[in-house]
Design a protein that fits this description.
Structural class of chain A: alpha+beta
Shape of chain A: globular
Largest sheet of chain A: 6 strands, mixed
Oligomer: homodimer
Number of helices of chain A: 10
Order of helices and strands of chain A: HHEEEEEHEHEEEEHHEEEEEHEHEHEEH
């Protein structure tokens, strides 16, 4: 697989979408990105697992980080890509291979700029935080991630999205007692008891708080359920995996406490938590970028690695092509015009004084 | 592993329990049974997969079939066996390796009898009907199963249990629409919708009908549940596997119709059904056996291969050591005295005029 960075950003997006890269299987795409950037004299290339970092060394006073993940959620009968009426369809087209295509076009095309740029392409963003490639990079090579400001090219509808919501995963467990299913009244059916967990989820009323002037929207959902021993056994355990998306006015600890109290009476095991980030658009670097690209900033609802840059002390925002509401849907797509507009605005911000 | 058929029936039971034989993994135990019976001159041995059939050829007018399955449900931290206060504990001790031990003792010890005997040891009784070793035998070698009367040594508390309930398995499916879990309100959560399936199960009132004078007890239970795409995706499908145990006054078709109507509004896929058998204790062969072993017959609640013999036109009853209510429980055990009593009564019935 050879990426052609001289093609239009839309054609390049289609090419990248067609290299399947579900989380954990990013190697073919990482190899292709590494190969495409390998011979460019203005970039210093580094690889860590399936993450690629390409840095300019123009000697500028300011360094910005442009970052994007190269993995996708599982393919849902939506590959290969196809273009129709100015829209590019396909798994990852919106989240976020169009942003990755913009990064690649800029990385290849900008042999000079008014800011030094660090391009980061990383793996395993769509799975539990511990596997996240940017987290791994921040542990293995924090020196590669330094910068004055970071932009994540996550889908944001072409406007700047501030902050992000946190995400917490927990296993909520209902227990029972095994028995032969021919004499079910001698046991206690844990799957039936898990109905109580689903009752809580069905009745849950999520908050929609204002934080630093932007409006967030929480959500508490089952993302997995499993239970059962054998076809003739009353099961003694049923586990519901829930995902709590929480506004950045809660800390990870507060989010965990909330989930525990909501499922009072059941065992709750928090398996994964990543805090959100407050919008922080008042910070100078963020404010200048917002002014340059224009538009009305809004709250980022999905968790993004903005939170990780925030934790590293680097101001960061989300800005990329694609409607975030289409991310992870089978119908995922991105308007070609938004990919082009994103490329042009980033190009202008990196080259024009 | 070498079985010693000269040891007491309780010691032999313990030895058999200690040869793990969860459905699908019966080969070591089938091998051991085959080896233990191989050199007995009064038996003709046949093997079909992990099923063993041993037949006498005494030239008697009547032939009886003594049958037992050698598989167990999954081990539940209840191996190896142990004996305490006259009770033998361990996976399969009750359902039904104590019955298998009685069969083996009789097969080895009875070089002559007033009835010809066919001993059947078979695999995969604890899983879906299509894998059942007795079904396979009835297709591959129906000639080996002929007889005037059959006794299944399933646990029946040492009294004759008549007929059996049918069992039906179905997948009940809730559907939804995928979305990113950060914007869950754009999708429809299939796991939350499956709460409606669990509501039905929690509210279900099972019948307890009288059939031919014996009292049955139905049950409708979830035995498995699964759903989920990824930790950040609102799932579009959740499947609840249910097991319906139905009294023998319903046919398999009527049972399927009942389950479909109970889950009206959800997709229902019947995956497995095995009809029950009416008690039939009025038939002469059954009545003579009941008179010989004594006690008050009662209804068999669990499905057993009595129904399969019934379908082959062979009258059959359940009679074996162990409390059927302990089958498939972690605490499964059998009183040593019941194993001995079963062996003695069977021996008397097979040898005394």
């Amino acid at each position: 697989m050879q990426l052609d960075l001289s093609r239009s950003v839309a054609e390049l997006t289609a090419q990248i979408v067609d290299v399947e890269s579900v989380s954990g299987d990013e190697q073919p795409l990482a190899d292709a990105i590494g190969a495409a950037l390998a011979d460019l004299p203005h970039l210093r290339l580094h690889r860590d697992g399936n993450a690629i970092v390409a840095r300019t060394d123009f000697g500028r006073a300011e360094r910005v980080v442009l970052a994007g993940h190269i993995d996708t959620v599982p393919v849902n009968d939506n590959l290969p890509s196809r273009q129709e009426n100015g829209l590019l369809y396909g798994c990852g087209s919106c989240d976020m291979k169009s942003g990755v295509a913009v990064q690649l076009r800029l990385a290849a095309g900008l042999a000079s700029a008014i800011r030094d740029v660090t391009y980061v392409f990383y793996d395993c963003e769509e799975v539990e935080a511990e596997r996240n490639g940017l987290l791994r990079l921040s542990r293995n090579r924090p020196d590669l991630l330094t910068g004055d400001f970071a932009i994540l090219l996550e889908p944001s509808g072409g406007v700047v999205e501030g902050g992000c919501q946190g995400t917490l995963r927990a296993d909520v467990v209902a227990r029972g007692e095994r028995a032969h299913s021919a004499r079910s009244w001698l046991g206690r059916n844990a799957i039936h008891s898990a109905g109580g967990i689903l009752d809580v989820l069905r009745a849950y009323e999520p908050r929609q708080p204002l934080v630093d002037g932007l409006s967030y929207h929480e959500g508490l959902n089952a993302v997995g359920i499993r239970g059962g021993v054998a076809g003739n056994v009353i099961p003694d355990e049923c586990t519901v995996s829930v995902n709590f998306r929480f506004a950045p006015d809660r800390s990870p600890d507060q989010a965990a406490e909330h989930v525990r109290s909501v499922f009072d009476g059941f065992e709750v095991h928090v398996t994964d938590v990543a805090g959100g980030a407050r919008p922080g658009l008042g910070q100078p670097a963020a404010a200048s970028f917002v002014a340059a690209v224009g538009g009305q900033p809004r709250a980022k609802l999905g968790w993004t690695d903005v939170a990780r840059f925030d934790a590293l002390g680097i101001p960061a925002v989300n800005y990329g092509p694609g409607d975030p509401q289409l991310a992870h849907t089978r119908n995922e797509h991105v308007p070609v015009s938004q990919i082009e507009e994103c490329e042009q605005r980033m190009l202008a911000w990196l080259t024009m004084v």
